[in-house]
Amino acid sequence: MQPLFLGIAARVFYVEEDPRVAAVTDLLPGANCGGCGQAGCSAAAEAMVNGKIEVNSCVVGGTETAEAIGEYLGYDVTGAEPTLACSSCEGGYRAARKFDYSGLRDCRAALQLYHGFLRCENGCLGLGSCVRACKFSAITINPDSGLPIFDPERCVGCGSCVEVCPKGIVKLVGETTKILHWNQYTQCLSPCRQRCPAQINIPKYLGHARRGEYAAALRAIKDNNPLAVATGRVCPELCATECRRTINDDPLAINSIKRFLSDWERNSGTRLAMPVAADTGKKVAVVGGARPG
Amino acid sequence: MAPTFSFPKGGVHPPEAKAYTEHLTVEPLPLPDEIDLILSQHIGAPCVPTVAKKQEIGEGALVGTVEKGLGVPLHSPVSGTVKAVGNCVHPIRVSAPAITIKVDKEAAPIVWQQSSWEHLDAQALLGKIKDGGIIGIGGAGFPTHVKLKPPADAKIDTLILNGAECEPYITADHRTMVEQTDKIVEGARILLTVLGINTCVIAIETNKPDAIGAMSEAVAARPADGMDISVAALSVKYPTGSEKQLIQAITGRKVPAMALPSAVGVVVHNVSTTKAVYDAVVLDKPLLEKVVTVSGGGIERPANLLVKVGTRISDIASFCGGVNERCERVVLGGPMMGFAVSTLAVPITKTTSSILFLREDEIDTRPLSACIRCGWCLDACPMGLEPKEAGIYVEAGRAEDTAQFGVFDCFECGSCAFVCPAKRPLVQFIRLAKMKAKRS
Predict the structure, then answer these.
(1) How far is Cα B429 from Cα B422, in angstroms, rounded to an integer?
(2) What are the strands of the beta sheet with B289-295, ordered from one edge?
């Protein structure tokens, strides 16, 4: 009796589902991570089919998944590029403190007390709210510097960390933004970095080089200037004119360190893989040769 | 013995530690070299400075006004020269706009002339209270004249004067009640006249028997003239001095969630505020100084001091023999609800009742651990909330879902954090929850 009843009920109460939802669900990774803000992959598929969220909302699947879903649903998603989290603070433990904080280990809670324990209004508190917000274990706090490290292999650009950072230090940045970024005088930057015509993040690469992390240091240079070997030899070193060390004696040999790093790569026999923006299918012509080109 | 009153739910018994200062007569602090008058002394809009740099001002001169919104004017507690109109360190915020005044120590102090007030109507009295810059100096800093103008539909029948002073260490209200008894009784009559009612209860915790005795005598000695002023003894329990708990203890009426005391026909004022009302109305003296308890094991000579508003903690500490090397933490306000300060350059405000210099054995720095769901915080919470749940939700990153645990009814008394065996900073969790959750 019961099977018959169930059979009838199944027909009477049959819910017609858009067949595209099932197809898009199959295209999604099925991790049910919730990184897109939906309850799971099938909920995300339904939202995509109904046009409620973008087809590239899946942070785990990345560009490939977005393109596959886009192709199926008839959207053009070529040229969409992934954005990854990064932090703009390099102070960490170096920043002067107003007082010893012994409360809740949470940046937002700490900020409620005298606007944080750092003298620097913009500095990273390093209590790791972003670490706990990350669903993909892409963020760790460096115990030596007290600053977050973002693992680009694991970061899917979901933005949970951006949301919890009370100081607005964590940002999602894509390759295009990085390349097109132009320093402003109103930004809180070190004098050398502010002066560098190539806008290289000098404190960052010097810091990495000091700790022997040569690959990371070179990557910081190449973010803004791919020709480290050449500039390491011919750069007019405008940064040195601004170096705070000159208040005491001589400026740091900033450019020589760049030259050392580029030579280290040349002699290592391998080449660092550099992140590149997604292929747009367009070509570029360079007028002129070498650096000024 | 007469029955003592108490609130029914929750509460804790922290070590009272009032023995440091409860027997010490209030002594005036000599004039400091400079003072910093923070322009935002009260809840509401900050004052706009009405003086300029290098201007010479006399004691009691108006230095700031509030044009729009909630607020009271600010007066200079000293004679001197305006050194700067800029910023100074603030006890809770990082820095705040303030007027720095270089004190003229040679100037003769003003003698405030007494005048009668009985012929004045409520409106004139309210004006005097507002112009005197009177705010709730027990801690909240709410402008007093606003509290004395309850909504038109509220039927007020009782005035409660809050002399509970349930926070450990603090004895400022206690000493004021013992030494300024008659002024408080006269102030109560002024408040009753403004409110147009006859019933006033002065509520004092039983750990201040001399204050209860002195107030009862003063009330009995003054002819009633149709006013019913009485003294009620409260059982010692923290936080009896909280407005809603005090109302429930004295009248048995429960103030609804998110409502004001006027909803149950009660107005509550602190006893020290009442004394300030007396000064403003009878002496025409604005709120210029404050009784501050300087206490704790980290200061050489604990004391009750009469301090000019704007005096820096460093001046007060050096008058009290200086900070000894065992001092670990300096707290402005009581140990339960006060704020630790990061520098002694912080000036006191109209709402500062105490400065505590605490030794390492008077503070608790053990690290927090996970909630063991023992439920002690539920028993301790005087509002009947669930602090542990709010804490767990905040830790799990779901602070926005905590309104169901009543976080907006929390007045941050700290009873939950005090009893928590896992040393969880529950008040901090709830503050974070209030920031993220939506008011319904």
Answers:
(1) 14
(2) B27-28, B303-308, B289-295, B354-359, B327-332, B339-340
Using CB atoms within 10 Å of the CB of residue A144, give its burial: 0 to 12 exposed, 13 to 18 middle, 19+ buried. exposed
Q: Are B380 and B250 members of one domain?
A: no
Give the number of other Cβ atoms within 10 Å of residue B252's Cβ.
11
Give A187's contacts (C-beta < 8 A, 6+ positions apart): A194
The one-letter amino acid at B158: T
The verdict on B326 and B430 lying in the same domain is no
The answer to whether residue A104 neighbours chain B at the CB level (below 8 Å) is yes
CATH label of the domain that carries residue A103: 3.30.70.20
Helix (H, G, I), strand (E, B) or coil at B258: coil
Same domain, B194 and B305: yes
Q: Does residue A119 sit at the B interface (CB-CB below 8 Å)?
A: no
Give the residue among B218, B249, B219, B222 at the shortest CA–CA distance from B236. Answer: B249
Residue B224, in any domain of the structure: yes
Q: Which residue of B has its CA nearest to A108?
A: B432
Last-in-domain residue among A153, A178, A203: A178
Cα–Cα distance for residue pair B257/B252, rounded to 1 Å: 15
- Location of structure tokens 């303030």: B98
Note whether residue A30 is domain-resident: yes
**pTM, to two decimals:** 0.78
User: How far is it between the farthest Cα atoms of chain A?
Assistant: 96
The answer to whether residue B424 scores a pLDDT higher than 80 is yes
Check if A266 contacts B (Cβ < 8 Å). Answer: no
Q: Which of A73, A91, A114 represents a domain boundary (last residue)?
A: A73
Residues in chain B: 440
Task: List all residues 6 or more positions away from B272 whose beta carbon is below 8 Å from its beta carbon.
Answer: B137, B138, B172, B173, B176, B290, B291, B353
CA distance B390 to B401: 9
pLDDT above 90 covers a percentage of chain B that reads 75
B226 in contact with chain A, both atoms CB, cutoff 8 A: no
Chain A closest-CA separation from residue B236 CA (Å): 29
- Which tokens belong to A118? 């750092």
Scanning every residue of chain B, which has its alpha carbon at the shortest distance from the alpha carbon of A99? B342
**What's the N-to-C CA distance of chain B in angstroms?**
46
Q: Average pLDDT by consecutive 10-residue portion of chain A (293 residues)? A: 77 80 87 80 87 80 80 71 77 85 86 86 89 88 88 82 88 78 77 90 90 89 88 91 92 94 92 76 80 64
Of B92, B339, B432, the CB nearest to A109: B432
Q: Do A104 and A140 share a structural domain?
A: yes
Residue among B298, B291, B287, B285 at smallest CA distance from B328? B298
Q: Are residues A169 and A203 in the same domain?
A: no
Confidence label for B374 from pLDDT (cuts 50, 70 and 90): very high
Question: So what's the pLDDT on residue A65?
Answer: 83
Residues A235 and A262 in one domain: yes
Domain with A220 in it: 182-268
Closest CA to A252 of A261, A243, A263, A262: A243
Could B432 and A108 be called an inter-chain contact, meaning their C-beta atoms sit closer than 8 Å? yes
Judge whether A8 lies within some domain: no
* Residue where one domain finishes, among candidates B302, B334, B365: B365
Optimal mutation site among A114, A125, A129, A135, interface B, most CBs of chain B within 10 A: A114
DSSP state of B77: S
Distance between CA atoms of residues B172 and B348, nearest Å: 14
CATH code at position B127: 3.40.50.11540
Q: Which domain holds residue B389?
A: 376-439
Closest CB from A106, A108, A114 relative to B94:
A114
